[in-house]
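thread: overnight batch results

M.L. [08:02]
morning all. the overnight job finished for the chain we discussed friday. pasting input first so we're all looking at the same thing
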Amino acid sequence: MSDPVKAPMRLPTLFILTTVSIDAMGIGLILPVMPDLIAEIRGTDLSDAARWGGILSATYAIMQFLCAPTLGSLSDRFGRRPILLISMAVLAVDYVVMSLAQTIWLLVIGRIIAGIAAGTHATALAYMADISDPGKRAQNFGLISAGFGMGFILGPLLGGVLGDIDPRAPFVAAAIASAANFTFGYFVLPESLPAGKRRRFDPARANPIGGLKQIEALPGAAPLLGVMMIYNIANFVYPAVWAYYTQAAFGWDSRMVGFSLASYGLAMAVVQAGLIRAILPRLGSIRAVQFGLVLNAVCLIGYGLISEAWMVWALIPISALGAIVAPAMQGVLSNAARDDQQGELQGVLASISSLSMVLSPLVMTQAFFWATRDGAALFLPGAPFLVAALLMSGALALFMAHAGKPAPAR
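M.L. [08:03]
and the structure it wrote out:
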């Protein structure tokens, strides 16, 4: 019998790509319908719905933050196949429950379970590493990033279209997709990790805290990691409040929200796939970060103050260019770490991103609530974007104060 790692893996690879796409769609698919669904369940207004939307988003991110390392470690102990298949099955059942939810607390429980089950990104990466030749691992990891990006584009688009029919329809679609992918994987997915290569499950390694503590192992890099934290909190304003903001400011329905989010995702994909490669070599990492932070701050102010819907469409491709910050910061931070710390650095950055996804919805939806509630001194749906602009400016100031100070440690 041939070694599954060496055998042709087209169908298993397709399953892995579909899995990460569904994980991403699980985030984007429900964004366009959350305002209407929460308002329906609670019988409340948009401002209160936004507050609960922030709680639901933060809950999902917290569970991913806590459980993704655990799922990865469990896959090292029991194999990749059972973890991936069980996660898909749990997601399918969970989306059915959420489609039937009649109370906000059932939605909260649903997002807790979804956050746990959707934390399979590390396991998917591990599976791809198992089945890839060393020289092709980076290329195959790129496929996973592309699959995640495709899910984020398709999720809001489908969510907007289906949500226009019924705010619960996207949950039914997600359940069907998860169940279909589970069935597909059950028949085509071999185990990629031989029994002889598995390791004992160690709770001390199966949590995100250890990664965060490694900040101290990168001398001089802590302020730059702070820049990444602030930048991510500011940048996550888009998924955190976009549906509430566009409905309150321009009266958009779920279809328009979905189209606009998909357009932003597509613009981001174009920037990440092509433009960044042309811009970074010309500017260098430090100047690229400065350019991106300034551009992001200006665009966020724009979103905060604009009064016409067409201005949103004009800003989308410009603000997407601000995505240059993340890869440029990767370059700056990489120079602050030793060659044998590069993997450690990526773990720290992943933890920072997860924490940002927890904090940003709470901050931004609160800003939206106070600026749009009955009795607000000034009705300003774009207030969260102005808060994000302040944070982005703070990230720029911190970066300007510390950029270039950490000496390369080789």
